[in-house]
From TrEMBL:
Lineage per the UniProt record: Eukaryota, Viridiplantae, Streptophyta, Embryophyta, Tracheophyta
The keyword Transcription is annotated on this UniProt entry: no
Family affiliation: Belongs to the ATPase g subunit family.
Name the UniProt record assigns to this protein: Mitochondrial ATP synthase subunit G protein
GO cellular component labels: mitochondrial membrane; proton-transporting ATP synthase complex
Gene Ontology BP terms: proton motive force-driven ATP synthesis
Subcellular location: Mitochondrion membrane
Source organism (scientific name): Acacia crassicarpa
Length: 122
């Protein structure tokens, strides 16, 4: 156990030395590559302004997304009315979508229970 701890400590030391040696150049390179996204002056006030702009822009986009949702729902209703003319491809896509929704539900349940499958904590 002590040898594993020593190995882990050695790896952590090597990683911190690598970051200390190359971290600053990586940081500068990253900023240079993405300077079109940097707002001047880079202040806390500018960050707060951008956060508010993002929040209210997303809030304003809800009406457009709601409209798209209702169009999609009308499309599904129309497909259901004319299900006799439904193609195998459309039925397969619908089945895969239903399976994906079920899988996400199951994953959410597992995460909600603390990553246990039975619901009991050991």
């Amino acid at each position: 156990m002590a040898s594993k701890l020593w190995q882990l400590q050695s790896k952590a030391c090597q990683a911190s030395q690598f970051v200390a040696k190359h971290g600053n150049s990586y940081y500068r390179q990253l900023l240079d590559q993405n300077k079109e996204y940097i707002q001047e002056p880079p202040t806390i006030e500018k960050c707060q302004l951008l956060a508010k702009q993002l929040f209210y822009t997303r809030l304003a986009s809800i009406s457009g997304r709601t409209e798209s949702f209702w169009k999609e729902l009308d499309y599904v209703k129309n497909l259901w009315k004319n299900r006799q003319e439904l193609k195998v491809e459309d039925a397969g896509i619908a089945a895969l979508f239903g399976l994906e929704c079920f899988a996400w539900f199951c994953a959410g349940e597992i995460v909600g229970r603390g990553f246990t499958f039975t619901g009991y904590h050991v």
